[in-house]
Structures are given as C-alpha cells and as structure tokens.
Amino acid sequence: MDRQTEIRLIKEVVELHENGDKQFHDSTETHTIDRYVSEDWFKRETQLIFQQMPAAIATANEVPNIGDYVSLDWINGLPLLMVRDKDDQVRVYANVCRHRNARLVATGSSGCKRRFSCPYHAWTYSSEGKLIAAPEFESGFSDLNKDELNLIEFDSRVINGMVFIHPDPEQKLPDDFLHEEMALGFKYLDLENQRVYARRDYVIKANWKILAEGGIEAYHFNVAHKDTLAPFFLGNLSTWESWGPYMRMILPKKPLLEARDLNEDQWDMRQMANVIYNLPPGMLLLAQPDNISLIKMVPLAPGETRIEEVLLVNPPKNGSDDWSEEERKIHEKNHYLVNHILTEDWVLGETIQANMESGIVKEIHFGRFESALTEFHRRYEEDMRL
Ligand code: FES
Ligand SMILES: [Fe+2]
To answer: Is residue 78 domain-shared with residue 152, that is, in the same domain?
Structure first.
C-alpha cells in the first residue's frame, strides 16, 4: 500500500473505534458444514480451485542465490521444487523424476545444488530443468527422446518478491490476475528483501478453510487469545478490502489510538496494527512489526491440512551474513510467540473439525461483524460455481 492508503486506513480504523462502529455485513450468514467435511465437496474444490487458480507458493527470497532450491507441497500430494537457475530466475518444477516418478529432493528440504540427481537411478537435471545425464541412457532408452524428458515446469511469476504459479502445467498465468493493490502490498512489506529466519511444517486435522477463517476476523481475539494477543489489540475491530479473491485486513493494536495525538507523518501502520494479506487458495501473510509469517495451507483431505510456515525478517542490520545475538534474541522471541498464537488457533480448528464430522450441529453462522468471512465465502462460492 502507498502512504496515502496507509493514512486513509489508519483514519478509517480510528473513526470506527471512536464511533463504536464496525465493518458490518447486511446480515448474518449461515452455511451448512458440507464444505468442511464432504469428500465430494473436497474433490470439487481441488478441481475448481486448487488446480485452476493462480497460487502464491513462496517468496523468491526462499531461494536467494543461484542454485538454491526448496521443496514445497501442493494439492493432491503434488510436490514442487522451486529453484533459482543459473540466470538468476526463479523456476518451479514438479519434484518428480521423468524416469519412474521418484522424488528428486526430499519433501521439506532446501539447499544449494547445480544439478538435481535422482536418488533412484541418477537421472540428472540442470537447474533449468533439462535432463542432462542418465546412466546407460543410449542402451536402455534408445527409443526415447532425451529432450522430451525435462522436468515438468509450471508457469511462474515473481511479483514484488512473491512467487505465483499456475498449478496446471498446461496453462499460463493470466497477465492481470493480481490487482495492483496486492502487488503494492508486497512492496510495502519489502518482501524482496526479507530473509528466511525459520521454517517449519506440520499437519493439522482440520479443513484448510477453518484455519484460513481464523486469520481474517478479530472476534475471537479477546477469548481464544486472551493472554497472547488480546492485551495488545483493540478487541473485535478490524477493517478489510478485497480485490477479486484477494484480501487485505487491518487488525488494529492499542497504539493506533495514539494516532490522534501524533502528526500524520508519524503514523506507522506496521507499528499500529497487524496487516494480513489473504491470498487464496491457501496462503496467508501475517505482517507484524518485526517479521512476516507466511502461512501456506495445503489441503490433504477434507479434514486434514499440511501447514508450511516461514518466518521472514529483515536482513542483519550490520550488513553481515548473520543476525547479531541481539537481533536473534528478538527473532527467537517472535518466532516462539507466533508459534504459540498459531497453536491456539490450530487446537481450536481441530476441535471444530472433529465436531463438524460428528454431524451434531449442521450449520455455522458468520456474524455481521465477521464480514470478511462472508466475503471470503462469497468469492469462494463464485470460484466453486455454486
Ligand atoms: S526414478 Fe529417477 S532415475 Fe529412476
Ligand atoms: Fe487466531
């Protein structure tokens, strides 16, 4: 967001707070629980959303140097391999050998390689995805054309530091799929210069939407996060805007109320609020003052989601390769806190899923002030062609 937008949004939140107002939807919204538990629903979601929509999968700085790679997961168990090639371009391949489908690098691994050699029979690919060597190829595979056995590549684009792919390797990303305001948001967060501080992944037994929903409402702050977030935030207050499926949400903190006593040039959204960018399907960016959490939700089943979480922080202040002890202390503390707060959400998510699967209560309701959830589902239904 630009400076004008930042000021407009701070004014908007101060006004909402002063008037005891909220960003209301016209009515309460009710949905059946099918969309969280049904196998058929999940299949449809996989086909129409996760295999069709442009997807944010990572930041380019997760592979900062030539030869760097990271393995990532996508829907249907599709493993991705993101690489920075010898021309400094980020490229995304299926992490699948063209010989007999073995995984080239282990899931969750990262590192730096000039070439990728399959652990099964050593078919070897360059960072440009080309099959460059295969033992005894000429005698064993003489009727195959080596040039047609390069890695499967996904059309990808780096937009101000965020990497998007089209999940269907046969299709290209449309030119204008991302609204400029979202692209500006990545600039605002300085994504291009952030460094990976920590990475972790794990599986939560809950539908991905339950987990995403917790990221775009503040109604639960005073209750579910009463000892962690609640002391610092303005309770059930938030404001959001959306562009197509993409959404930016502002979750104001108590210092935002001091804005009235400060000159506008002292207003700083990153200090006064958490900013969330929701990039369906499955990616949430949570910007706090000193760090950004990338939370990627990869659905495995209606009631199971793999979370790939990356903590991004500013590069070391003194220009060296590593953070000072003092900086590390701050990042460690923040890392612990983020994990702690997310765990509060995930534990709730798992109980919600289990209860939904019991089928005892067949509906859920979004309150008028949970309007971002209503919008999220309105757009979701559009993409699901409901
Ligand atoms: S499966 Fe990769 S070399 Fe055989
Ligand atoms: Fe939460």
So the answer is: yes
Mutate to test the pocket of ligand 1, among 81, 98, 100 (most ligand atoms within 8 A of CB): 100
Supply the pLDDT for residue 271.
93
CB 119 within 8 A of CB 107: no
Specify the residue with its C-alpha closest to ligand 1, atom 3: 121
Amino acid sitting at position 63: V
Residues 257 and 325 in one domain: yes
Residue 330 lies in a domain: yes
339 and 249 share one domain: yes
Q: Which domain holds residue 97?
A: 55-165
Q: Kindly state whether residues 272 and 365 are assigned to the same domain.
A: yes
pTM above 0.90, yes or no: yes
Q: Is residue 175 part of a domain?
A: no
Cβ burial 202-239 (10 Å sphere, 16+ → b, else e): eebbbbbbbbbbbbbbbbbbeebbeebbbeebbebbbb
Residues 304 and 321 in one domain: yes
The predicted pLDDT at position 275 comes to: 97
Cα 254 to ligand 1 centroid, rounded to whole Å: 56
Nearest to 183 by CA among 2, 379, 372, 308: 2
Whether ligand 1 lies within 6 angstroms of the CB of 24 is answered as no
Q: Are residues 358 and 373 in the same domain?
A: yes
151 close to ligand 1 (CB < 6 Angstrom)? no
72 and 219 co-located in one domain: no
d(CA 218, CA 214): 8
**Domain identity same for 28 and 60:** no
Q: Give the residue ranges of the chain where pLDDT is below 70.
A: none
Q: What is the pLDDT of residues 141-172, one digit of tens each?
A: 999 999 999 999 999 999 999 999 999 999 99
Q: Where are the alpha helices (DSSP H) in 33-98?
A: 34-37, 39-45
